[in-house]
Amino acid sequence: MAITRWDPFREVVTMQNRLNSLFGSLNNETESALTTASFVPAVDVYEDEKKIVLKLEVPGIAEKDLDVSVENHTLTVKGERKFAAEEKEENFHRIERRYGSFYRAFTLPQTVDTESIDAKYENGVLKIELKKKPEAQPKQIKVNVGKPLAA
User: Fold this and answer.
1) I want to staple 108 with a disulfide (CB 3.0 to 4.6 A). Which of 4, 73, 139, 147 is the partner?
2) Residues 98 and 109 sit within 8 Å (Cβ to Cβ)
3) 81-120, pLDDT tens digit by residue?
4) CA–CA distance from 141 to each of 118, 138, 144, 146 (Å)?
5) What's the pLDDT tens digit per position in 25-51?
6) Does domain 43-87+96-136 have CATH number 3.90.580.10?
7) 129 sits in which H/E element
8) What is the reported pTM?
């Protein structure tokens, strides 16, 4: 049996080394993501009885740089936010906004009429309305109570 000397700080040093390596790798991943990754615009999706609506936040993107298309019940939204430095003497201290191209794809349900899609761009929000097929919209059926059905 070997006798080992107990060092109360050995476990603390081991844990500190593990945390440093963890945060070091996360920091490297974050830096590479900031320099290489493009942004993904936030989207809200909601529906009512007649349509499904998507609202994408895409401020700072020109309308000509947006592309909305539908193919095989997949709605695709592509675009690009371009970084344009107006003056070469500007010294940026911090750049937090994301630039570059983005791509979002949404699988549409069979109830959507892909021939009647409207897209509007206003105040940095792209609003896409997908109308439902008439047979997919709910129908109100009147229930007769106590009356015989006509044959």
Assistant:
1) 73
2) no
3) 887 665 555 677 777 777 788 889 999 988 899 888 999 9
4) 30, 10, 10, 16
5) 555 544 444 444 467 889 999 998 889
6) no
7) strand 125-132
8) 0.62
